[in-house]
TrEMBL record:
HAMAP family on file: Ribosomal_bL32
UniProt entry keywords in alphabetical sequence: Ribonucleoprotein, Ribosomal protein
One Gene Ontology term, aspect cellular component: large ribosomal subunit
GO molecular function, one term: structural constituent of ribosome
Recorded family membership: Belongs to the bacterial ribosomal protein bL32 family.
Gene this protein is translated from: rpmF
PANTHER family: 50S RIBOSOMAL PROTEIN L32, LARGE RIBOSOMAL SUBUNIT PROTEIN BL32
Domain of life: Bacteria
The protein's name: Large ribosomal subunit protein bL32
Amino acid sequence: MAVPKRKTSKSKRDMRRAANSKMVAPGFVECPQCHEPKLPHRVCPDCGYYKGKEIVEK
């Protein structure tokens, strides 16, 4: 049966766990048409434009 030879220090343990906490929520960008905040690479929910073209009628 495998048994650890040394106790894992708090520093090593926390460094291993830190990799999961680096994920962050996506940032918002300003819509070039209506200047409202929106998620990048998505149709603006307020005006319906994406890359200068109207995709959804509002």
